Amino acid sequence: MSTSDNFDRTSLFETHQRLNARIVEFAGWEMPIQYGGILEEVNQVRSNAGLFDVSHMGRLEIEGPYAAMMLDRVLSVNVPKLRQGRARYNVICDENGGIIDDCIIYRRGAEKFLLIPNASNTPPVVKWLERWTPDDAQLTITNVTTQTAMIACQGPNSVEYLQKLTETDLSAVRPFRAIDAQVLGHDSFLARTGYTGEDGFEIILPAEAASDIWGGLMDLGAAACGLGARDVLRLEAGLLLHGNDMDTSINPYEAALDKFVDPDRDGYVAGQILRKIRDEGPSRKLAAFSMIGRGIPRHGYAISDGQ
């Protein structure tokens, strides 16, 4: 990772430049918003396979005998019940029930977890985890974001392409499962997760190995895609974006994320307020809508029922 003018750059930054990507600032990082065109990239993901550099996302390793207990206090899902090699989507809520972030938690071992917060939320998430970790707890929180890279390969051909770069049988890795593997000789963590609504894998690997695997997947036919296409795909799949669709002023029941919340656990820091909201019902609720005309719904537009 490198920096320029107070913005961070991923280990693939020079690769994006060679591909003539349009680079923009996003969450403190210089990231590719598009290469050829956003709609072309969206169609590549839907019909073939697309590559996304998502190295700006946080990567936190939480390890130790107290790891599961601490995470169970902070995350909205039951962490001790999470099996090794499994992943769960969840939200991190403050004492008022507001959503600090949404993230994926992976269990990599009996006492080892990997948490993926959003890019701009990584510092507050680390601070929140540390707040609920006793000083004498047998636990380490290690931010490995800058030492690693994260590539998402998404689309109907994504598994076929990635399979050609590893001897690990990817057909055995079901959705929201993960496995350690060698990809082009590089130690990698392969998770069958994503943010596009399509099948695929997210690959976490040493930062210096990112260009090898990116290039290998492109040589097989995967298309480079920017954050613009990723946003279109996640929106049409009904996936929420923290800071846009939810924040600390919105609780998970208002955000229609209640199926990812178990508020009845002992010790859960947001449990009391979330039980109250659940029992009384939220006063408002986020809802999706579909356009039937050719108009473009801009951010902040009012929606009426036509009456």
Question: What can you tell me about this protein's structure?
Answer:
- There is one protein chain.
- By secondary structure, the protein is an alpha+beta fold.
- It has a domain at 2-57 and 145-236: Probable tRNA modification gtpase trme, domain 1 (Gyrase A, domain 2), CATH 3.30.1360.
- It has helices spanning 13-18, 38-47, 67-74, 122-131, 158-163, 210-220, 227-236, 271-280; strands at residues 2-4, 7-9, 22-26, 29-34, 50-53, 60-63, 87-93, 99-109, 112-116, 140-143, 148-154, 178-183, 186-191, 200-206, 223-224.
Radius of gyration: 20 Å
Main sheet attributes: strand count, strand direction, barrel closure: 6 strands, mixed
Give start-end ranges of low-pLDDT stretches: none
Supply the number of helical segments.
Answer: 8
Helix content: 10-25%
Instruction: Report the average pLDDT across residues.
Output: 96
The CATH architecture of the domain at 2-57 and 145-236 can be named as 2-Layer Sandwich
CATH level 1 name of the domain at 2-57 and 145-236? Alpha Beta
Please report which band the strand proportion falls in: under 5%, 5-15%, 15-25%, 25-35%, 35-45% or over 45%.
25-35%
Shape: globular
